[in-house]
Design a protein that fits this description.
Blueprint: E1 2-6, H1 10-21, E2 25-29, H2 33-40, H3 51-60, E3 64-67, H4 71-76, E4 79-82, H5 98-110, E5 115-119, H6 127-138, E6 144-148, H7 158-163, E7 168-171, H8 177-184, E8 195-198, H9 200-231, H10 235-243, H11 264-277, H12 283-306, E9 316-320, H13 336-345, E10 349-353, H14 358-364, E11 369-370, H15 374-378, E12 383-386, H16 398-404, E13 409-412, H17 419-424, E14 428-431
Helix pairs in contact: 1-3, 5-6, 9-11, 9-12, 11-12, 12-13
Bound molecules: uridine-5'-diphosphate-glucuronic acid.
Uridine-5'-diphosphate-glucuronic acid is lined by residues 122, 151-155, 211, 214, 218, 252-254, 256, 259-261, 263-264, 267, 324-325.
Length: 439
């Protein structure tokens, strides 16, 4: 099948490369000439494990190409995917759909023969109806169906998530789209992946409901972690104890500094707005958003507490990890963006290291001193804080860290280490939701 993918952001690029790998002929289109040049030269605009090799292999085999002008690809496509950005609109938190609608207009002018237009971007309920209206108004003669096909990819694990998903959700209003969408995802038959056909609005809402539920689950365990600290219980054991109940499930029960990233913060906010506008407010999700925002800010106080107070003048804090999670260079809504400025406001000097995120971080974190490696970052600091659980921070040479620090204090916001081990090594160690260990 022939596929045109509008937008070579995270979702567009990963989906385009994976569809090509499934055997389809895919053209990824983007208005950003520099990005297209870079992709044509084999360089990726984002860090995602395995993506560069996947793109290279499919370009070499002639199934994947990149274009600034999408006209040819759209004219000949069986399916045109809209995978452009939907940032939070400034001021009201609603998803900004201007890129989606601009793509719809462009597609309207070009489609030729029966074409399925698929939204992969996360869009509010009813966007598919609006896309259909825009295309119909511009091209009353066009033969097309608008489909919702949300993505459930996790950054850092996106290729695996695309190729071995738990399910694929497809929202259709026109039955003619069903065989075409089934064919697109046919390689997933091998793994017997459920492909769930629903109405279009249902599919659009399913995406938001999934992210809101996961954000709620994380927030639940984060609050439970605070309670564990007050009661002297261990949140990791509580998480295991409840997670082994199949009705609850063990995933997304890692307590931490609060969720970040490009999806949960934006999507929960957009869903809250949609629900309020629809007169059916989601109070649980409203509260989730509030708790998470406050939590990210409160993490700086934990670091200050480990140093004995909120006056951090003359103190140096080493942050290990800046991105919102490992295996990405994405800094969007990362807890480090709240923690670093708050520590500096208390008078601290902040020195930091992240394996992939420093380039992005440098644009967003004024005043932070970036270091070349974890040991450089720790040198001369009063406390080391694990912000993101990159693999390389899981096996640090702790004796070396201890020598490099002015005093052996670690705040582990991802529960990477075990309190008893850290105590045995002579660290003053605090983590999330576990009994503290003093030296
Ligand atoms: C999330 C969803 O997991 C994907 O299914 C979805 O497709 C994607 O959003 C999206 O809407 O595009 P992502 O934002 O890449 O994916 O990252 P997650 O792995 O879900 O992590 C999100 C945040 O939650 C991170 O800050 C992570 O540290 C935090 N988290 C996650 C926890 O604090 N505890 C957990 O147990 C799990």
């Amino acid at each position: 099948m022939r596929v045109a993918m509008i937008g070579t952001g995270y979702v567009g690029l990963v989906s385009g490369a994976c569809f090509a790998d499934f055997g389809h002929v895919v053209t990824c289109v983007d208005k950003d000439a520099a990005k297209i040049d870079r992709l044509n030269a084999g360089r990726m605009p984002i860090y995602e494990p395995g993506l560069e090799d996947l793109v290279a292999a499919n370009v070499r085999d002639g199934r994947l190409s990149f274009a600034l002008d999408g006209a040819d690809a759209i004219r000949t496509a069986d399916a045109v995917f809209i995978a452009v950005g939907t940032p939070s609109r400034r001021g009201d938190g609603h998803a900004d759909l201007s890129y989606v609608y601009a793509a719809a207009e462009e597609i309207a002018d070009l489609i030729n023969g029966f074409t399925v237009i698929v939204t992969k971007s996360t869009v509010p309920v009813g966007t598919g109806d609006e896309i259909e209206r825009i295309i119909r108004a511009r091209r009353p003669d066009a033969d097309f169906a608008v489909v919702s096909n949300p993505e459930f990819l996790r950054e850092g694990a996106a290729i695996g998530d695309f190729k071995r998903p738990d399910r694929v959700v497809v929202g259709i209003e026109d039955e003619r789209a069903r065989p075409l969408m089934t064919e697109l995802y046919r390689p997933l038959n091998l793994n017997e992946t459920p492909i769930l056909f629903t109405g279009r609005r249902t599919s659009e809402l399913t995406k938001y409901a999934a992210n809101a539920f996961l954000a709620l689950k994380i927030t639940f365990i984060n609050e439970m972690a605070d309670l564990c600290e007050s009661l002297g219980a261990d949140v990791q054991q509580v998480a295991r104890g409840i997670g082994l109940d199949n009705r609850i499930g063990s995933k997304f029960l890692h307590a931490g500094p609060g969720y970040g990233g490009s999806c949960f913060p934006k999507d929960t906010l957009a869903l809250v707005r949609t629900a309020t506008d629809a007169g059916s407010p989601l109070r649980l999700i409203e509260t989730t958003v509030e708790i998470n925002d406050a939590r990210k800010k409160a993490m700086a106080d934990r670091v200050a507490a480990a140093l004995g107070g909120t006056d951090l003048k003359g103190k140096t804090v080493a942050l290990l990890g800046l991105t919102f999670k490992p295996n990405t260079d994405d800094m969007r809504d990362a807890p480090s963006l709240d923690v670093a400025p708050a520590l500096m406001a208390m008078g601290a000097t902040v020195q930091a290291f992240d394996p992939e995120g420093m380039h992005e971080a440098a644009k967003l974190m004024d005043g932070v001193v970036f270091r070349d490696g974890p040991y450089d970052a720790v040198e001369g600091a009063d406390v080391v804080v694990i912000m993101t659980e990159w693999d390389q921070f899981r096996a640090l040479d702790l004796d070396r860290i201890k020598l490099l620090l002015k005093q052996p204090v670690m705040v582990d916001l991802r529960n990477v280490y075990r309190p008893e081990d850290m105590k045995a090594r002579g660290f003053h160690y605090s983590s999330i939701g576990r009994p503290e260990s003093a030296r």
